[in-house]
Amino acid sequence: MTLQTILLAVGPGDADRTDELAETVIEVAQPANATVVLAHIFTQDEYNEVLENLEMDDGSGQVRPDEVASRHSTIRDLRRKFDEADVDYDIRGDIGDHGSTIVELATGVAADRVVVGGRRRSPTGKAVFGSTAQEVLLSSPCPVTFVRGDEENGD
C-alpha cells in the first residue's frame, strides 16, 4: 500500500515530543513522498485558552481553528522540522474530544496512516482516565503509529 496522506495529530501533551513525532513522520513520509496533515486537536476549553494566550479572540467568532493551530508553538516546531526535511504538509485545527475528533479527521482526509503521541500509562490510569491513543488505535480507519514520549512515570 502506497502512503499518500499521513495524519499527525497533536494536542496539549505533545509539546515535549515534537522531535520524536517529527522523526517518525519524516521517516515514513519521505520515501513515499506523502503529504502530512499536521493537525492540532483542541477541546473547547483548550481552544478558548489558546485564543486568549495568542491574543487572537477579536470577539467576532471569525477566527478559524486552522489559523489558531498554525500559530501554536507545537505546530510551529513541527513545521520547521518538516520544512528542513522537505516534507509537504497542510495544517488543520479542530475542536472536539481528542480521540473521536482524530478518527473523524483521519476519515475526512482519507489518511493512509495516523501518527499520535502519548505516554506510558498504568493499567489503572487507562481504566480510570481513558486514553486518546487507545481510542484512536481501536477506531481509526487506517493503521496507527503510536509515538511514546520519554516520560519515566506513568500517570
TrEMBL record:
Gene3D superfamilies: HUPs (3.40.50.620). It comes from the Archaea. This is UspA domain-containing protein. Residues 4-148 form the UspA domain. Belongs to the universal stress protein A family.
